[in-house]
Amino acid sequence: MNEVVMPRLSDTMEEGTILRWLVRDGEPVRRGQELVEIETDKATMTYESDLDGVIEIVAAEGEELAVGAVIARVGEAGAHAARETSGAGADEHTITTGEPSAAQQPGAAVPAPRTESIHEAVPATAPATSGESDGERVKASPLARRIARESDIDLHTLTGTGPGGRIVKADVQAAAGRELAAGAPSAETGVNPPRVGPAVGVTTAKGGTIELELSRTQQTIARRMAESKATIPHFALQADIDMEDCVALRVELKGLGQTGAPTYNDMIVKACALALREHPRANSSYRDGRLQLHSRVNIGVAVAVDSDEPAGGALIVPTVFDADIKSLGEIARETHTLAARVRDGSITPPELGGGTFTVSNLGMFAVRSFTAIINPPQAAILSVGSVAPRAVVRESGEIVARQTMTVTLACDHRILYGADAARLLTRIRELLEQPASLTL
Question: Domain ranges in the chain?
Fold first, then answer.
């Protein structure tokens, strides 16, 4: 039988999670047929079969596996039935579990631990159980069952929000948070926890604590940003940009009645792309003591993703490819579409890779300035503050109110020196202060 392994669906992917099988164990599949939904570090992807045959599912829904690990096998008709009849057959891999199998009756003696063939231990078509012994089965992911056991939560009291009403990790974490917030009695004593007084030690003075497991995307962001700050020698330059003409241009474009008029961020993306084309060193990467100069100018646009989960949302960076040769209107339409695809979860890994420079904008939150962390292996990132009227002193000494924006350029000192970065930032400012050049 041919093995189907966990694919590498992005350049930073190391593990993937089986979210949902789209076929049943033992079902015939054909080349190009969608097999499974996989959650990567960046997005959720549907993986297609590149083989014809009968599928034998190995990895269960909710299971996290490293890239290259076997998730299924595809073989000729009859091979799957023969394997089931002969037990483990040629598959010598076993796993150890301390939980009773679904076939065992409540109250039956359970050896601990025991081993069983992997295709018997994790059949994808059998409903996941809560681990309770009252005879009623609850659809829940393996991770949700583990968290429920550790938090002493009865899965029968929860309503699942996963596919087909399946209870997932977030459902259990939410229930744990509600119990803690309500001051639930201790599972051992049945007594409500005492109020924290001024004499209580530092450890208990914080009250109850909930540990929230980060999503795969959040874990990847945390790891990459920590690596960036630890390994890249950052330095930052800041500049104020007169945005009066950009404000006037945007009003004019909106007045034309066109849908999706360019935003200030679209103008910034275009200005950065043109400036990078003129300063190719800033459009490069540092790899093993060498610079890799990139022929294409691809601008990543940071998009915040909100979430109702206690652990919060994430920051996703889709890419506007060849932004230097696209019109301002094309950039506006593309950034709008990419942001919508990020927020509805339909963005794909190819749309999230290949960036050579990043723009991160918090101006919509009235943030005046900030310094973002470089997205490796890029040379720099531009942090954008709000556009607002501020007092400006003219050469004559007159104080006037002008629409102004503060930007901060964080750079990798291995690639760009101070003067290099200053020239790039000056060119970006010039383009934005004379925005007619962005429409050519």
Answer: 2-119, 127-181, 216-439
Can you point out the beta strands (E) in 76-119? 94-97, 114-117
Which one-letter DSSP state was computed for residue 439? G
CB atoms closer than 10 angstroms to residue 364: 13
Q: Edge-to-edge strand order for the sheet containing 53-57?
A: 2-5, 70-75, 53-57, 28-29
For residues 348-356, give the mean pLDDT: 90
Q: H or E segment at 219?
A: helix 216-231
Is the alpha carbon torsion for 218, 219, 220, 221 positive or negative?
A: positive
What is the reported pTM?
Answer: 0.63
Q: How many Å apart are CA 117 and CA 322, to the nearest integer? A: 51
CATH number of 2-119: 2.40.50.100
Residue 119 appears among annotated catalytic residues: no
d(CA 437, CA 115): 70
Q: CA of 410: how far to CAs of 233, 271, 287, 315, 392, in Å?
A: 10, 17, 18, 18, 25
Question: Whole-angstrom Cα distance, residue 194 to residue 285?
Answer: 56
The residue written with tokens 């004559």 in the block is: 396
pLDDT tens-digit series, residues 160-169: 887 667 788 7
Q: Over the Cα atoms of the chain, what is R_g?
A: 28
**What is the rounded distance in angstroms from the CA atom of residue 274 to the CA atom of residue 66?**
40
Contact call for residues 76 and 55 (beta carbons, < 8 A): no
Q: How confident is the model over 93-125, as pLDDT tens digits?
A: 433 334 444 434 444 444 443 433 333 333 333
The CATH number that domain 127-181 falls under is 4.10.320.10
Residue 26 half-sphere exposure toward CB, CA atoms < 13 A: 11
Catalytic residue among 234, 294, 336, 413: 413
Q: Show Cβ contacts of residue 190 under 8 Å, excluding neighbours closer than 6 positions.
A: none
What are the structure tokens assigned to 346, written together? 């339909």
Q: Are 69 and 5 in contact (CB under 8 A)?
A: yes
* Longest Cα–Cα distance in the chain: 93
On whether the 216-439 domain is CATH 3.30.559.30, my answer is no
| Cβ neighbours for 294, distance < 8 A, ≥ 6 positions apart | 283, 284, 285, 356
In contact, 124 and 25? CB cutoff 8 Å: yes
